[in-house]
């Protein structure tokens, strides 16, 4: 109401015509933007408006209001809590929606908010219970709401153990309220007016669907137990204690059924004030205790407990008169008169704070209490013990007790003692003795000893047995009984010991003897003493958690210290401990520490290798320990860093790298990368690969992985790396278990050659240039390195090459052919596999086979086996004559002669090579092979080639090649050739050409030639037109030597000569005229006639006979005369040589259009050959440049001259001839 | 530091000297402070110890002032009573009785043990409703001007310290212990609930 007025005052003008709803909206809008103080005011207005003025709006604006629960301001949040409370009270239904919000706020970070939430829950717990009990409808929502409230209740009870004093205080008050709510209100209950309508257990129906009467009842009792237990906590703060005392008083008055427990608790507390209280706090607590005791005493139900209460009050210093005044219902007051006499019986402070700790020791008392017969039992336990003690307290006993206790007196008088001490006025009186006995009994009962307690327990046990339901509690007691001794022995020995044990053992006996003096409790003084106030030390109170960064910082500093104390520790001989420590630390804590340590190691790896290894093993260990789920990452990082560090270090000779690799438990991928890099370093390649080899051999489980690296390196671009890798691989290839893998790899790699473009694999992973890069010599070789080095070790592999070769493109083929020389040579021609290859010669691999043959026979004569295969191949499968070339010297003479026509048709260079082979004029000249043909044979064979098989041009060129080899075709050889040719029949067509050529080369053969000519006459040379033509030519050139030959001709033939060469006649005639007459007489007349035919034919015919003689004459001695005429006629011949040669062509080569320039062409051919040889170092590659099939059909006459210089495969007739033709 | 200013009550028996001195200082320091007496009447020294001037709590300071001026201006000027009343009337119009005040406080400071007991009795006799805690602290102060001034400063310091705690309830115990040591006098302290 107040509020509404205020509000109208504060904002009268603008609000007047607004509806409430509009006003609320306006206020809420304001609230969002203004500072906390004003916000609170505004929100309060809203609350007033929607809760009190117009509750119908509550629902509308609920969400907006609740939204403030996340406000930054604590006060606003607290306000929201208050609002929740008010709203829920106004409309219980809202509980369903708001209870969760309250729950949230109950966990707020601010204790003030939490406290407020506890207060509100205290109220709402009752509200909720009431509402739910009344509500008829059953809904899940409600049940859930109740569950949440119940859970929150539990949470708050748990807050009794909160760290925060204020929170505990609030929790106590909540507990108080809870106990009252969860216990039945009875007729003798004090009911505050305001709470008359409050719910209590008696109003809860026993048949509610989800709210269980029994459960609630039990919860209430549990809460009380909790509270009682809480109160006897030795370290309880004075405020909590005060609060609890007040709560107990409230409980006792509102629920007298618990009065027994409450009074008991007061008694116990009074006797055992917490030792942690300071002096003034003790006073405060005692004052409170007094206040509450009086309050309890005033309740009518305190009757039963008046004795205890008034005793307590007396002890607390309240005058009897006042006590009496506070005591109600005087009727039964004297029920326990025996306490009365102690009115002034302030026997000092007995108040033995006995056992300073532990709630456990308190339990016997409270526990007996809660039972229905609790109060009487508890009383009687103390009473019984008191009665038992009373007669024992003789002066002597008491004196003894005092003396014994003296030992345990503390040095300083405890605050609580000092505060409460009053001199004993009535010492020695019976009343005082009784009081003393009772004080002692209280202590003993509290400590769980004494006859009274035992009796009670015995009784209770019996009751438990009789009562079916009592089992539970009986069990409980047993449990506690068992627990007690342990606690007592463990904790109380020094403290209680003297006191507690005496009465049980000695006291009964001893006490009989002497009368008691008041016993000074020894133990408690010691504890409560010392300083006025003492707090139990709790570590949690004085420490604060470090922030993450602080922790990290400290950790890394600590590790660094260990790290850098290397020398100091080494001197003390504890390095191994340090190493172990470091490695453990580093592996346990992630983060930069590890990096630091690794760096440290790498700074001087040589001396710190033990740390490196230790660290590595530790990492591995960690990995193993986490096994199925563990990751190698950390280990990997460690190993990687170490290896990289070593790899990057400029130099180290001590093999630490190898050692690390070989001793690492696992080589990870990245570590392997480092090893690879290491191997790629040219200066370390050997060491690196040795390491790798060791790995491969010694780590069989992953050897292929390692092997793969080595294999990869075998095609490395750096030659040193590559060759080393290949060398290692070759050695490993001998090991059976690795062999297959290596072989497969090599073959796979070679297999790449069949691709049209080199796969990116060849360029390494980083260069991804799969597209369009053409094969190069380099890339092709890359694919072959490994294979080729394996080939000599395993000849079988050669077949794979052949199959790849057939599929590969021409460029690759060329490269392959170039690459295989070494390995093939290494295999040697006796290799069965190679022979097999030759024998099979897959289609498409002919050039390969040829190349192989060439390589094999380059320096060595072919073996019979090889020759056999080639021959076989040639005859049966691929009739390409070029196969024969390499093995030509291994063939039979007739085979060669057979092949000659084909051979000489080949490219002139090839022909030249063939001739070189045959003539043994190879420039290699390593092991001169024995040719099946002598040079003479060859030349003769050439002459005998059937002109149908080969055109004359090729033959002529071939013979020219022979003539080019002056060293081979010496005059002797030629003489023999001519001799043999001449003896043939019919005469070879080229006979005279050869004769003329021979003569040109060796003019001194002139005599021999004359002899030949003469003999040709005998063979009637004129029958062979071509030869005859040559004959005439020869004669023409060899005049005047030939005159005598001419004269041997029959007249008809001589005529024919003159017809051809009319100019011959006159000189011949002259020649005859120069004869002596005798000689002239020998000239037949017919001859003379021919000679003189034009002028005087008469004198000639005279001497045919001598001519015959003359012709027969020279025959017997051709060799003998050879020299003479030659030497004689040499000068002339030489002079005329060029002319002769020029002329000679005319008849011999009618097809040649320009007969006159043979010399030039011959010379040019020779020149060409001589210049070409250096240019084309080895003729071998050329013929193979193209597959044979391709050029075979081309073997025609027409070739362009330019091509002759090239390696292009050409027809058999290329060369000077065609040049001339142009 | 509590998020709202402490609501403080200073209580002596007559709401004249000790409580008003503290009230004066505390309000100057910006506290939300009120002062009370717990006695059944307001008593001021009279011409003799057994003849005090007794008023009820409805009498304003002004009226008392005038009354005393009228009775013996010189005496009451000399013993400082008039001066005190003059100050009091500038603070508020009339003394208040603690037991009659239903307002709620966070902190109640009493000036002697008897007053403390009365405050406690009163608070405990009230019906609990909100369970809002109120801390009651007794600071013994002799009832004369000098002690009142000293006591007021002590109370003020205490209040300032309490106001500056992060979490008053959690720290007040310790704080009081420190003050006890410092001031060398005991403080009674308890908590009650509204």
TrEMBL record, chain B:
GO cellular component: nucleus
Compartments reported by the entry: Nucleus
Coiled-coil residue spans: none
Domain of life, source organism: Eukaryota
UniProt key word Transmembrane helix: no
Keywords: Hydrolase, mRNA processing, Nucleus, Protein phosphatase
Membership in a protein family: Belongs to the SSU72 phosphatase family.
Protein name: RNA polymerase II subunit A C-terminal domain phosphatase SSU72
Organism: Sphaeramia orbicularis (orbiculate cardinalfish)
